[in-house]
Amino acid sequence: MASHRRDNLFAELRADTTLFSFNDSVVDVFPDMIQRSVPGYSTVVRMTGVLSEQYAQPGTCIYDIGCSLGESIRSAERALADNAAANKTCRFIGIDSSSAMITRAREQSLQGSAIEWIQSDALLTQFETTSVVILNFTLQFIPIDERLRLLKAIRRAMVPGGLLILSEKLTMADPAMDALMIDLHHDFKRSQGYSDLEIAQKRDAIDNVLIPETAQIHTARLADAGFSRSSIWFQCLNFASFIAIA
Asked: What positions does the entry give for S-adenosyl-L-methionine binding (predicted)?
């Protein structure tokens, strides 16, 4: 298994901050990057396993869309494997559009793991019958006008009582509160060892790639997609995780 390098991609001044992409350079530092950038990330991953165990139904797929290196789908697989009663002959499928991410995820697969790794655009994926779908910090990278279409495709494939886990960076409806949350997030990143230069250059690179929305917009869209009810189950600063029930 490859060792995890420290994220210093934006530590030196760049004349041109190109758009952020999940290439080999990002993959090499991704575990360190996401832990130091997303408050509460470990809690979201751990609870993804707990929730998957509770809602998985026999003979269905458990999808992790935008799986990156697969921490969330691995959490789900472990949770079901550790509980014989919850081992419900599910298929575990990790999907990511980044070839670098999928290649590394495959390389890091543990012996005995049954996770299927697929490189695919989420918007082009034909979903099989599913009871749990994980969208941890993925929808924010999908064009806004395509987000409802993706959620509808997921809902159509989902059995009654199925679960969607949707984790996102949020923007706040109140501009003053939004500005405060952004400042607090930058303070969090400083506390994790990022410099002001790194924070500024990463923000410039990702501004037109990651487009956050309000919690209210997410909740309304989930209803429009056909989910019967939804709620935020976890939030830290401007990062939140929703659950939505089919």
From this structure: 41, 66-68, 136, 203
Q: Which pTM does this prediction carry?
A: 0.91
Residue range 27-80, pLDDT digits in tens: 878 888 899 899 999 999 999 999 999 999 999 999 999 999 999 999 999 999
Are residues 48 and 72 in contact, defined by beta-carbon separation less than 8 angstroms?
yes
136 is an annotated ligand-binding site residue? yes
130-147 pLDDT, tens digit per residue, is: 999 999 999 999 999 999
For residue 113, the model assigns a pLDDT of 92
Domain boundaries, the chain: 41-171+209-245
Task: Please tell me the CATH code under which domain 41-171+209-245 is placed.
Answer: 3.40.50.150
- Is position 41 annotated in a ligand binding site? yes
* CA distance linking residue 168 with residue 140, whole number of Å: 6
Beta strands in 51-157 (DSSP E): 61-65, 91-96, 116-119, 130-136
Q: Could you give the CA distance from residue 44 to residue 233 in angstroms, rounded to a whole number?
A: 10
Task: Report the C-alpha gap between 149 and 154 in whole angstroms.
Answer: 9
Amino acid at 182: I
Q: Is 67 annotated as a binding residue?
A: yes
**Ligand-binding site membership of 203 (annotated):** yes
